């Protein structure tokens, strides 16, 4: 089963839903993660990953992408600071980097500070032998809800638009290891649709059959070219005969 987060204003319990099957079918009724008595869904005790893992470092893809895009956008800016804007383009190490030879980054440009993403992560550890769905959801969901305004702002910037409206319904599109992909709730259904049935594989031909068909294609092309040459020669003869008749009439 898959989980999807719903609007932030639907409450902590109601904001988490469980799909009834691996693939979303149009019209399928989502099941609440928490029951009326507050107990979690049966899927909550399942392993988050297969094979099971004991911990998971969670990042948010749009947060990481925004820092990368910001750096790309300001890569070619004028390097000379203006007297009016001394911090027009400021470089230096990462704020918490105390190494002897730290990596130098673009810290500020065009009056904007670099949107750091390195410290936006959450470490979720299993309490017993493997990380369960409930342990993951219980830690990650409130963490994401706390940064909802930031997510709306960043998702808008990544698309070259203002922040998404506060009423936007967001969803975690997938829970794969690494960065969480967050987008409009309606995209969750599209991402989890049943894949189309693949077309049956064509019959495999033997080496002899492939060779025979290749020879047939070569012979067919040769015959076509030969007919074209014959037609061209016939047309040339007709043109020559017409020219001869015209010359005879002139005499």
TrEMBL record:
Residues 229-243 have a biased composition (Basic and acidic residues). It comes from the Eukaryota. Residues 194-213, 229-251 are annotated as: Disordered. This is Uncharacterized protein. It comes from Chaetomidium leptoderma.
